[in-house]
Amino acid sequence: MSGGGSGKVKETEEEKALARVAGEKWNDYQDRFVPYENEFMSRMEVTDADRDQFKGGIIGQANKSFAESENALLDEQIGKGARPGSGRFQAALNRVMQKRGKSIGYRLTDADNMMDEKRASNLQSVVDLGRGKEMEAYRSMGDLATQAHRDAIADGEESRIRSEGNNQAFGNVIGGAARVWGNKDDDGD
């Protein structure tokens, strides 16, 4: 039978020195870099407060844009002699209000999706921290806010233009009917 030793291999002095250097590097990394990584990760997190602030800006811009559209509609309807309590007046106002609600709903859904994409992008930036790609995450937040602002303005303008177009068409029909009616009176005299 063979009888060997314990089967344990002793570390060499070189291996002990390498282990000591690796430990020192790890401790240095923990002391110097981990606090910055933690700070970076905390800044990359999309919080509920971030979402609320972003959504509040979207709602505010949509309300502002549609308020301008509603005011133009009110002025136009009153200028045409419509009474604020009339069915035509209320129907026109209801159309604008429904468009506002839809616009806000769509924009908030878009905002949720964008914030989720932003969160995923931020997590990727944390993963890429050591690769020098983390600046890409900072760039996109301003882009999201700018796009939401533009969309809200466009929706309000589109609503105003459609309302004016519908009212102009209605006025043309009334004008044509009055002209026909006026011609019938002239023929009868």
Kindly state the number of beta strands.
Answer: 0
**How much β-strand is present in the residues?**
under 5%
Stretches where pLDDT is under 50 for at least 5 consecutive residues are: none
The first-to-last residue Cα distance is: 139 Å
Q: pLDDT average, as an integer?
A: 75
Approximately how much helix is present in the residues? over 70%
Give the helix/strand class: mainly alpha
Global morphology: rod-shaped
Order of helices and strands: HHHHH
Helix segment tally:
5
How would you sum up this structure, described in words?
The chain has 2 domains: 30 residues; 124 residues. It is mainly alpha-helical and 189 residues long. 84% of the residues lie in helices and 0% in strands. α2 packs antiparallel against α4, α3 packs antiparallel against α4 and α4 packs antiparallel against α5. The radius of gyration is 34 Å and the shape is rod-shaped. The longest helix is centred in the C-terminal third of the chain and has 54 residues. The model has no long low-confidence stretch (mean pLDDT 75). It has 5 helices and no strands. The N and C termini lie far apart (139 Å).
